[in-house]
Amino acid sequence: MYGVCGCCGALRPRYKRLVDNIFPEDPEDGLVKTNMEKLTFYALSAPEKLDRIGAYLSERLIRDVSRHRYGYVCIAMEALDQLLMACHCQSINLFVESFLKMVAKLLESEKPNLQILGTNSFVKFANIEEDTPSYHRSYDFFVSRFSEMCHSSHDDPDVRTKIRMSGIKGLQGVVRKTVNDELQANIWDPQHMDKIVPSLLFNLQHAEEAESRSPSPLQATEKEKESPAELAERCLRELLGRAAYGNIKNAIKPVLIHLDNHSLWEPKTFAIRCFKIIMYSIQPQHSHLVIQQLLGHLDANSKSAATVRAGIVEVLSEAAVIAASGSVGPTVLEVFNTLLRQLRLSIDYALTGSYDGAGSVGTKIIKEHEERMFQEAVIKTIGSFASTLPTYQRSEVMLFIMSKVPLPSLHQAVEAGKAGENRNRLTQIMLLKSLLQVSLGFQCSNMLTALPSSFLDRLLSAALMEDAEIRLFVLEILISFIDRHGNRHKFSAISTISDISVLKLKVDKCSRQDTVFMKKHAQQLYRHIYLTCKEESNVQAHYEALYSMLVLISIELANEEVVVDLIRLVLAVQEIAQINEDNLPAYNRCALYALGAAYLNLISQLTTVPTFCQHIHEVIQMRQKEAPYLLPEDVFVERPRLSRSLDRLGPEVFFRQSKISEVLGGSGYNSDRLSTPYVPQLTGTCLPGASRGAPALSRPPGRPRAQRPAPRSADEDRLSKRKSIGETISLQVEVESRNSPEREERAPAEEITYETLKKAIDSVAVEEQERERRRQVVEKFQKAPFEEIAAHCGARATLLQSKLNQIFEITIRPPPSPSGTITAAYGQPQNHSIPVYEMKFPDLCVY
Amino acid sequence: MSMEDYDFLFKIVLIGNAGVGKTCLVRRFTQGLFPPGQGATIGVDFMIKTVEINGEKVKLQIWDTAGQERFRSITQSYYRSANALILTYDITCEESFRCLPEWLREIEQYASNKVITVLVGNKIDLADKREVSQQRAAEFSEAQDMYYLETSAKESDNVEKLFLDLACRLISEARQNTLVNNVASPLPGEGKSISYLTCCNFN
């Protein structure tokens, strides 16, 4: 074996001679091309010899390596590569074994050049698609060694980069070679993934370090070549892109552990970058698995520092956006439950100052502001998850979050004591913030299904009204629900603009569902607005929110009836300030006046009733002259100039109910209703806790108008209308609160029968004129004698009859449904017409 | 097989706290060097050394792991396929000795149950700074059923002995447990190692 080639060449087998001939005298000369062609030709014509050729070549190579004759090593490798490329046939298998042995030999070497040479050959091999790869091949060593090369710490930075690049390419090769073949060594096993993934991440992570070095002109040219980080990223993408459902977990887990170990959650840029790569390269139907793993990791890190948790949550948020519709997967509520649980935990940590609630020794110090940041991150993430959901799931999620809001006097145990209250308040705030985040950009076509009573009842419950901050959240949430056309920012500042067309409002006609929604919940909303107005702790933000809310209801949900109610409501709010039974400070009173002015200014222009506009305009002008501190422009500034003489204002600076009902009544609005002052009403099902707000409801007994019965004529008219067809009566139900005996003094506002309730729920709003016309028709039919009606109908029927006969004679074909056509044409109740038709129809039916 | 340049192939993984001298031990053994300002290992390092024991060529694949915590996940992935583990501590560093139970737990968790573990107390050249007595370490290794040796990579004390003894032990283990020594078709890249130690248990 150690004989020098050539001396006894004639005695050696042909393949050995051919192999020996490809090596030149001087390794500098490189592969002898013509002889290589001969060898290739021989190998192709006698494939059964291929394995022997391979074995002999590898034997020579191993010998050359140990003798440090690297020139010949390179030549042998080149020859192997060429043979490998040339022989795409089944006999390649045995040859591959010698080939891989040689690659392994090169990789064992300490010489970087040989390592790179070996890797390059391996990569070439990896790109060959074998028909029947050998199944007992193991790539264990390759994975280990390539991973090790990815971590190279060679002294020379250039060599180091080259070795690392080789390592990455090698891993890529192994992945390509094995990933698609289930019978091959399973590359997805944790033992391989735990090497491959961290090695790639390690290189990816060092991209920033390399770039942050001052780029010298020399490096600038280097840049044109691919960096290890770019290569690693490509490799990672390729790997993840090929991951099947069952493999995702094994591929993602090392990422999570790597980020843990290298504490990369905290600056989080890298973590986010990683997961962006993951989310973008993974097959989209698997993305929810990644989300689930991240959530699981968050749970596992419940007791880690807030910054770590915040990093994970941040990553979740980014990942959710990328995964879009598929991010949540089948367990929507589970996702939100986890996030809300983390939120609660964080609140507990911040309050107790330790991770186990006992404050035992050795626990890490909890920084409250870090917890706060974490909470913000969770809320943001809840928002980004929610934004990926379809509408119906979003409202489900909102119900879910709402159900978690702790409310006193419900089944949820609410901790007593100051600590408990504090926790409650914080939890409420956090959950409402989450809710607000979810509701942002939420566009429900159907308010009724999006906001069921169970949700509204809780949201509007009195318990959420006491605290100024919470109160504001509730308003904001309502606003973002109601605002479906993105109008809200146009009303962020309160003002009395003289021409609303500059706002370019987007308005759709109030849909039927919206009308039904308002029928059901309007009183609840009004009451909420009214009571909120009365709160002394309101600041400018509250008034702005109240203003937006009023305006948005008017734009989005209003029909005439709602407009009337809103005007009544605003007038009642003006009254709060005027009578001031709650001893509100001057600022609040002025703010309420200003709120009224701003709203009435807007609604007057929306209704486009000239006389209404005029009245409002007059009052505003009067205020500008006499009492500018009653206008938003003067109240809602940094230092409002307020007047102390609020109780000595002349009547001309107020909006007058009588005047408004007069001008609007003239334009077909329900003036009777308008002239009835607004009284907050409890409607529908109300929470037991809601009665806490009851004292605010009580009006002083001396109020003359509160109990004044509506004028008799109006009552009669209303009663007669009720009998007519299609009449609608708005629902005004007084639910007597057991806890507020004062209210019993008041006479029930209206007679309630089953009929009215049923109608109120079922019927659709019908326009006034249509109603009037019908009433006349009905009246006529009710009062006039039968003969007259019969004659009237008969005359018309005979006319029609003759016309029809004419037509039928021409067409001969019988009309499909003559009776239907006739009744529809007349638009009259059928029972009156039937006798007339019965007389004539038999003739018609002969056809 | 005439093609093979060795009769046995074993994988040895060095583990232990950061800075106890794992890399120096390997360098001393494979290259006969003692690199004075050796930096912390990144991830894993790979060395190969072929030794001859009783006329048989034994190839030792040595995986030198980083002691730093942040590389723990990648280093752990190398335990699994190891034939032998060299658990190293620094005799001048009490802390590195106290961490040993933790390392044993890791071995328990990640390594094969047939793995041979050797406990090595390194840096005996710094005898005056010794914090861990030989007796204590010997008792510990006995309790854990490990081989125990004290070395100095700097003075080259016991380094050869460590690896050669280990190789002998690995050979005899392999012989004991494998009657069929000349298994056909060794796996590329793997040599014959898999057939030596994975097919039978000997505990």
The portion of residues assigned to helices of chain B is 25-40%
In CATH, the topology of chain B is named Rossmann fold
User: What is the rounded Rg of chain A?
Assistant: 42 Å
What is the first-to-last residue Cα distance of chain A?
A: 115 Å
Can you summarize the main beta sheet of chain A? none
Helix content of chain A: 55-70%
Distance between the termini of chain B: 30 Å
Roughly how many Å is the radius of gyration of chain B?
17 Å
Largest sheet of chain B: 6 strands, mixed
Largest interface: A-B, 44 and 31 residues
Q: What's the quaternary structure here?
A: heterodimer
How are the strands of the biggest sheet of chain B laid out side by side?
2-3-1-4-5-6
Q: Mean pLDDT of chain A, nearest integer?
A: 73
Our estimate of the beta-strand percent of chain B is 15-25%
What does the overall shape of chain B look like? globular
What's the rounded overall pLDDT mean of chain B? 81
Classified by CATH, the class of chain B is: Alpha Beta
- Give the name of the CATH superfamily of chain B: P-loop containing nucleotide triphosphate hydrolases
The ordered H/E elements of chain B are EHEEHEHHEHEHH
Membrane topology (chain B): Lipid-anchor
GO molecular function (chain B): G protein activity; GTP binding; metal ion binding
Keywords (chain B): Cytoplasm, Cytoplasmic vesicle, Golgi apparatus, GTP-binding, Hydrolase, Lipoprotein, Lysosome, Magnesium, Membrane, Metal-binding, Methylation, Nucleotide-binding, Prenylation
Cofactor (chain B): Mg(2+)
Structure commentary:
The complex is a heterodimer of chains A (847) and B (203). Chain A has helices at 14-21, 33-45, 50-66, 70-86, 92-108, 112-126, 140-150, 157-178, 190-212, 217-223, 228-241, 248-261, 269-281, 287-300, 306-323, 332-352, 368-387, 391-404, 417-439, 447-450, 453-459, 468-482, 512-534, 540-557, 560-579, 586-607, 610-626, 632-635, 657-665, 671-675, 694-697, 712-723, 754-762, 768-783, 786-811, 818-826, 830-845. Chain A starts with 13 loop residues before the first helix and ends with a helix. By secondary structure, chain A is mainly α. In chain A, helix 18 (391-404) crosses helix 21 and helix 22 runs parallel beside helix 24 (540-557). In chain A, 63% of the residues lie in helices and 0% in strands. With 203 residues, chain B is of the alpha/beta class. Chain B has a single domain (6-181), classed as Rossmann fold (3-Layer(aba) Sandwich). Helix content of chain B is 33%, strand content 23%. Chain B contains seven helices and six strands; from the N terminus they run βαββαβααβαβαα. Chain B has helices at residues 22-31, 72-79, 94-98, 100-110, 134-143, 159-177, 193-197, and strands at 8-16, 44-53, 56-65, 84-90, 116-122, 147-150. Chain B has a six-stranded mixed beta sheet, with helices on both faces. Chain B is globular, with a radius of gyration of 17 Å. Chain A binds chain B through residues 1, 55, 58-59, 62, 66, 96-101, 103-104, 108, 110, 136-142, 144-145, 147-148, 150-153, 190-191, 194-195, 198-199, 202, 254, 257-258, 261-263, and chain B through 2-3, 5, 39, 41-48, 61, 63, 69-74, 76-78, 80-81, 185, 187-190, 194.
